[in-house]
Structures are given as C-alpha cells and as structure tokens.
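Q: Structure tokens for this one, please.
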Amino acid sequence: MSNLFNKSAHELIGLLNQKQITSVEITESVLDRIDNVESQVHAIVTLDAESAMESARRADEMLAKGESRTLTGIPIIIKDNMCFKGHRTSCGSRILENFKPPYSATVVQKIQDEGMVILGSANMDEFAMGSSTETSYWGPTRNPWRLECTPGGSSGGSAACVAACESIVSLGSDTGGSIRLPASFCGVTGFKPTYGAVSRFGLVAYASSLDQIGPFGRDVNDIALALNLICGHDPMDSTSAPVEHPDFTTFLNKSVKGMTLGAPSQFFDKIENKDVENVLVEARRVFEDLGVKFVELSLPHLDYGIAAYYIIAPCEASSNLARYDGVKYGYRAKNIDGMIDMYCKSRADGFGDETKRRIMLGTYALSSGYYDAYYLKAAKIRTLITQDFKKAFESCDAIFCPTAPAPAFRLGEKTDDPMQMYLTDVFTIPVNMAGLPGVSLPGGLSLDGLPIGFQLISSHFQESRLIQLSSAFQSHTAHHLARPAL
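A: Here is the predicted structure, written as tokens:
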C-alpha cells in the first residue's frame, strides 16, 4: 500500500488495528513522499528519518503487545518552535540556528508517550512573526496547490506538510491566525483551541497572552483525535486552565439541526473578493440544509482588533525576545568589542527584519511616557472585544465568518508592504484577542483553483461545538478530500 501517505489518521488507525498495515509501512510511505515533493514545497526544517523509523518500530511493538493508544504509529510533524529534547528547535531564526533544547515541550512529550512518530520540524515565520512563512531564516515555504504562492503563516510549514501529504497530521501555533490562515490557504483543517486548553510549556514564546498550540489534519475526525491527546491541564504552565475536556470524538457525526450560527456584519462587510464570498454563500447553504439557523450579529469593537493586536503582540515579543543576547545559548556575533557590542551585534545579526521591526515597535510602546498611550489603550480594547463576543454568544452556538480576505497570494507580493501583510489576519486576530477557540474548514476553490477556507468560532472551552458543526459540514461536502496535484 504505497499510497498510505494519502490517508487520514483515522483511516490508518483502522488499518493498524486490523493488522493490515504497520507503522513502519506508514512511515516509509510518508518518507518516500517527502523525498518526492519536499524539494518543491520546502515545508520541513529538520527531518530525522532514522529517528522516525525507530519510533515506528517501537510503535509496532506497542501494537503487537496490546499496549497501543489511539494515535500510536501515526506520523506527525511539529512546528519548529516546540522544544524537542536533543533535536534542533530554531523558531525559523538564525539566532537559534543550532539550538537543541535540554527538555521537550509538554505536547511533544504527550506525542511521544502516545507512540506517535515524530518526523521532524516544520518551517515557520521567524519566531512566528508573519503571515506567509517568508520571514524564516531557512527560506520560504511554498503552497502545495500553487508553488509560486504562499502557504500562509506563521505555521505555513505545518499546513503545507499536511496538504502535500508529507505528514498525516501536524502541530502549529496560533498567535493571531497562524493556524487558521495557513489551513485556509492550503485547503486543510486547522484548529486553534481556547487559550489555556493546551499547555504552552516548551512552546518558545512570541506573545505569551495570545500564543496557543493546535493541530492540522485532513479532516475534523483527525482534529478531534489530536485534541483528545493535547488538551488538558499542565501544572508546568501557569496559564493552563484546570478544565475537564470531553472526548471530542463523541461529537463527530452528531446532528446540528436547531443549532444557531451568528454572522457578524463587521466580518462580512469587509469581504471584497468574489471567490471568498461565493464560498461563504455555499457553506451557509449547506448549514441551512442541515437545519442550522443563522442570526445577524454586531461586534462593534472588531474594527480596532488589528491596531490593538499590533501593540499587544509586539510588546510581549519585546519582553520575550530580550533573552536572546548571545550569552548563554544561540547565535553569538564574532569580532566583538566588549559585552554591549556583543549584545548589539548578536541581536542585529541574529534576528531578521520583521522580528526586529516588531521588537522595536513593542519596546517603543512600552517605553516611559508611551505605555498609557499605547499598551494600556490596546488592553482596554481587548477587553471590549472579549465582551462583544460574550454578548454575541448569548444568541448563537457559534460564529460563522471568513478566515482570510482572499485566497493565497504570490510569494513576495506583500513583503515590501508590512501593513498589507498585517491586514491578511483581519478575520483571525479577534479570536486570539478574546482567547476563543476557532477552526478553519476547507470551503471550496477559487476560480483559478486555490483553496478557500471559512471560520467557525465558539465561546471559551466549547471546542466540542466546533467539532460537531465541522463534522456535519464535512459529512455533506467533499472539499476536505481535494488534494493538490504535486
């Protein structure tokens, strides 16, 4: 079965349990696929085939002894900002070019305990700062659907891996849309859980109050399996919520008749792309045929989300990235003249332009005399956005809206215009500002064949509603089954 790389996780689990295939066979199939297409896509930063095969052999032993768990033997790729003990974790940056952490992130440890096969790490925008995976020190990732286009960012490598069938599932992180935007651009399912639902211990921080780990999969069935694994309280993470999570697979294939979706005018008024509009109209029709009701909503402070985000996130980045100074680990400049010169040269040489731009923006906003004018006001807007969502959920089970303003754009198209790049996240940022869960589902293709996703958002720790709605949609459509012609 040479095409095992093309199957979903839940399909492979069934074949493994029936002893029709082995984890070694799955892993070999995926590694062969990587050999065939990775040179075109450039989605992977670090590939460790030898370690992956050893993990696959251990998984087969677990299966033979009856010690396996749900996802045992399934290959996965993790974003390059999740610590993996003894393996390079560079965050797409020169400053961590050769960094190998002495411990693993909680999610990585859970993956290993499950008996999954970690293939390596996926490319990303440097320190997760970007919307196109073009700021990576290792070079840009290309969209498997059209190689001259971006896969989105910052988790572009994680999304492209799944779309190109270089991994069965993957993990990304989402600070302002970094899972949902690539999912939309690459035609896969991407899920951003509630802030605090998944441990951030071992996730290299960009903006600590916004970052959240989440999965990419071929369909929502795979997402439910991944969420069952990674969600849960972690005493090692002070922001991890002590909340009991249900078995998300029990919400698959459930009726959605009588459920209500809200359609906020502030989202839909901004749609200018006809292909995006057509996808949303068709998706709404599918939900209505399933018995879902729609209500019009207003989120009056949504328009301030982008401005507030690009104060809060850079401020937190300025603080989080201060530790990279060339002293204890990471890149250190050569030919230096004293300690201060070492700091300056190491940071100037080690960080890319976009990362330096955001560090400077955040440092300025936090500086004496400007804190109240910028950061404090942004924090107040964040509270108002959260309250808007809370009120909206009084009249609906979830919110229905676009993921991105347009399909994937061409590589290099927006790199010289940071404002246009930032506006790519206009529909995803409010979800992070309020700490809500959101999912991007494949909704169709543009007239010229590029994937377009749409977004569902629910209230805090109501991931199960999103699983239920997503499953119903994918049970009655085939958009998630489409594959790029690589």
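A few notes: The chain has a mean pLDDT of 97. The chain has 16 helices and eleven strands.
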